[in-house]
Each structure stands twice: as structure tokens, then as C-alpha cells.
């Protein structure tokens, strides 16, 4: 009887093994051969899933994005629009171990995308998705009467995105300063300023 291979499990193992190497030793050490060895498989078997490092990095990015979406799906969100927006923004900042890994993957991915057309296309898609999310959050605040209808939503969505991206980088670099409490305080301050509260 042929051996049944759990491809989803293999891909998860590959993604997590590859990220562990990238996180601790840098992307240049994450060769197909090294990842295969650490994951307990042959380089040929790993190439069955990914033919090059960019394909692997795309998969790692998608894997961590899916993990974040699953976590968000299982979260209990506030019914108050202001607090729900605040919770959503806080969810995007790496203030715990899981989110630090996801943000680390994003930074490596973005840097690598500067020299990779395939990764650059995906990066542009993800950033556009972030802008769409920021606009949706602003629309929630407008509909709930927290924000004036005449705000420049184009500028405000970019500003909100810049605040969250900046917080994410600082939370990765200085987690001792950008704790969950401090990050929440900054997000709340920004939202209150936006809402004139």
C-alpha cells in the first residue's frame, strides 16, 4: 500500500523550519538543502514543493498571513465601533511572539522584494490590501459618527497605515519600549486625535 503523504503538514513544517533559519541566521543561510536537512527530508523532496528561494518565501508569507487571519477569525471583537477599530489596529502590531514572527517574515519579504519581480508583485498586492483595510476602518468610524464625513479619507488611510507600519517596526526593534500597553496607548491617541475626542 502506498504511503499517504500529508502535504499540508509538510508545507507547514517547511515554512516553520525555513523561517526559524531565516530568523536566527539570515535569509542567505536558508538554502533548499539546509531547510530540507532541518525539516528531515531530502532536497529533492523539498524541491517538489518549491523550486527556488522566492517561491519558498512567497509560501512562508502566505502561511503566516493565513495564520494571522485564522487567529483574527477566532477572536472576540467589541461591538463598539471605536473599540473594534482599535482592536483591529492593535492586532496588526507585533506585540507578542506569534505576531513578531509574522512581522519579521514581512520585513524579510519586503527587503527581498526590492530585487525580485515575483515578490514585488505580491508586496504591492499586500500593501494595497492594507490600504483597503485602513479605508474600511475609517468608514466604520465615519458611519458610527466618530469622524467627520469631510475628512480626506485618501490621506487618512495612508497616515493610519504609516502609523501602524511605523509602530510595527519599532515594536520589533524595541519591544521593551513598545509593549502592548504602550502600543495600545499610541493607537488610542491617534484615533482620538482623528475623532477629535
How would you summarize the topology of this molecule?
Blueprint: H1 7-25, H2 32-38, H3 43-49, H4 53-73, H5 81-91, H6 97-113, H7 117-143, H8 153-173, H9 180-195
How would you describe what is shown here?
The protein has 197 residues and is mainly alpha-helical. Helix content is 74%, strand content 0%. It is built from 9 helices and no strands. The radius of gyration is 19 Å and the shape is elongated. The chain starts with 6 loop residues before the first helix and ends with a helix.
Q: Quick one: biggest sheet? A: none
Number of strands: 0
Percent strand: under 5%
Q: How many whole angstroms does the radius of gyration measure?
A: 19 Å
N-to-C terminal Cα separation, in Å?
A: 68 Å
Q: What pattern of helices and strands is seen along the backbone?
A: HHHHHHHHH
Q: Name the structural class.
A: mainly alpha
Q: Let me know the average pLDDT.
A: 87
Counting DSSP H or I runs of 4 or more residues, the number of helices is 9
Q: Helicity level, as a percent range?
A: over 70%
Give the overall shape: elongated
Low-confidence stretches: none
